[in-house]
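Reply to dn_fold:

You asked what the input looked like. This is it:
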Amino acid sequence: MTDTRRERRFRELYARHYASILAYALRRSPDRTEAEDVVADTFLVLWRRLEDAPRQDEEIPLWLYGIARRVLANRHRARQRQERVAQRFADLLAEGPPLEEVAAHRRNARRLLEALLALSEQDRELLMLSAWERLSTGELAVTLGCSENAAAIRLHRARKRLTEVYKKENATSGHRDDERLRLRRPHEKRHTDE
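and this is what came back:
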C-alpha cells in the first residue's frame, strides 16, 4: 500500500468510525478528556497497524472496539498503579518525620559540611575518620600513630573548632541552629574534658 493510499484509507476509516469509538469510550471513561485520549490511542494503533485491519468493512468497528477495550484496560491498570504508588508514598510520609523536619535536617547538614570544609585538613580528616568511618578513639590512635588519650584530645579539639566555625557561620548568615550540632556517634561517650 502506497503512502498516499494508506493515508486516504486511514482518513476514511477515521471519519467513518470516530463517533462510534468516542461514544464507546464515553460510556466507559470517567470524563470526556479521558474518553478522547482513549479514542486518540485507538486510532494511533489503527495508523500503526493499518495493514492488519480486517478487509471487510463491517468487521472494522469490531476490531476498533477491541483495540479501544485494550486501551481502556491499560489505562485502568496504569491508574491503579499510580494510586498504589501514591498510597505507598502517603504511607511513607505518615511513617517518616514531617517534611519540615527533613528540610531542617538537610539545611543543617549542608551548613555542617560547609563548616567542615572550612577546617584544616588534619581536623577534617580526624572528624571524618571518627564520624564517617566510625573509628573509636582507640582505632583513631592506631591510625594516627599516637596514644589513645592524645587521639581523644585531638578529636575533642577538632570538634570544638568545628562547632565554633559552624556557630560563627550561622550567626553571620542569620541562620539559627535548628538542632544541636552532633558530631559523635550516639553510643560514643563524651571525653572528660568536653
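The chain has two domains: 3-95, 99-173.
Hope that clears it up.
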